[in-house]
Automatic annotation (TrEMBL):
SUPFAM superfamilies from the UniProt entry: Acyl-CoA N-acyltransferases (Nat) (SSF55729)
Record-linked Gene3D superfamilies: 3.40.630.30
Organism of derivation: Candidatus Sediminicultor quintus
Lineage: superkingdom: Bacteria
Protein name: N-acetyltransferase domain-containing protein
GO process terms (BP): glycoprotein metabolic process
Length: 222
């Protein structure tokens, strides 16, 4: 990792984290052709973590430049509650203000997401009892393959382990992401497929829920 350090998130990192989240959102596809509104998408992906639980967020820093992040929560139930009560109303208001429904690409994407939702593709078992924590990780494309992701995972696991958290789970939408987490000691808890990007990719995308138990793993080395 050379001179790259992993450190706690600070408020000045918010813009960089949001930018990376938007740039890496759709499996390498051109974001503008899928969902053009950068601010709304970044809100969906990062708003809870950076604004409501920043102490559970960490960044990879290369000489003062944020080149990756891991943002998470110690309590997925709190995440869901805050999203419904505070973030979703905010997103609705912002979407109206920003004339989101006048962008045909954004409308098309939301239409396909709604179809997936109505088909039950976003319904997953509740793993919060044994795996109450969650995380979301991304690295800028030019910095991948340098073990930065593994370093971020180890840093985050050490953090929630010290908090006495029982376990952590997350969602992954590619084979590469699934294999990365398997190599980090996670296990597949659930798998299915999503169709909301089929109109772009010409095929369904895999969806995996992966988890890792912490406090009961006496051989954990992080």
């Amino acid at each position: 990792m050379n001179n790259i350090i992993i450190r706690p998130f600070i408020k000045e990192d918010r813009k960089s984290v949001r930018m990376i989240s938007y740039e890496t959102a759709f499996l390498g596809e051109d974001n503008k052709n899928i969902f053009a509104d950068e601010e709304i998408l970044a809100d969906v992906l990062t708003n809870y973590f950076t604004d409501y639980e920043p102490d559970s967020c960490f960044v990879a820093d290369d000489g003062g430049k944020v080149i990756g992040y891991i943002i998470g929560s110690k309590d997925i139930k709190r995440v869901r509650k805050i999203i419904i009560i505070k973030i979703l109303p905010h997103l609705i208001v912002e979407s109206i203000k920003r004339l989101l429904l006048f962008n045909k690409n954004d409308v098309r994407f939301l239409y396909h997401v709604l179809l997936s939702f109505l088909k039950g593709e976003f319904s997953t078992p509740d793993f919060s009892k044994d795996y109450p924590a969650t995380l979301h990780i991304n690295i800028k494309k030019d910095y991948r393959g340098k073990k930065i992701g593994k370093g971020l995972i180890e840093y985050y696991l050490s953090y929630i382990y010290r908090q006495g958290i029982r376990g952590v789970h997350l969602g992954a939408i590619s084979e590469g992401a699934k294999n990365f987490f398997l190599n980090c000691g996670f296990s597949i808890l659930y798998q299915s497929k999503h169709s909301y990007l089929r109109y772009i990719l010409k095929q369904d995308t895999p969806y995996y829920v992966l988890g890792k138990l912490l406090c009961y793993n006496r051989n954990l080395e992080i």
